[in-house]
Amino acid sequence: MDLTSSEFESVVEEALAALPPQFAELLENIAVVVEDEPSGEDLQLVEDEHGELLGIYRGVARTRRTHDMLPMLPDQIAIFRGPILRIARTRHQALHEIRDTVIHELGHYFGLHDEDMVF
Question: What residue ranges define each of the domains in the chain, with the CATH number in brackets?
């Protein structure tokens, strides 16, 4: 399965644009990026039972922030192109995985844990 880098990034942008307004309005100080592969550090931080790390949230969840925290660099959600394209057998599956991964990582931004999310 293959999507060009620009096609992949467009699907990530579409997933963000499709967020319900009540959630989109709460996004602040966060960047969503596409990376080819997770770093060794990313892999050490996350235990993934599926063998591929599709995305990661790097930051402090909104539910853990306090009023006295110092200003921070933007939180970041990284969506990993290589792993998603390796597990997807069709273009449709790749689009579905991209959208699900974006939503899943945004769940971490909002303070949800993996076991709190349905997918």
Answer: 5-61+74-114 (3.30.2010.20)
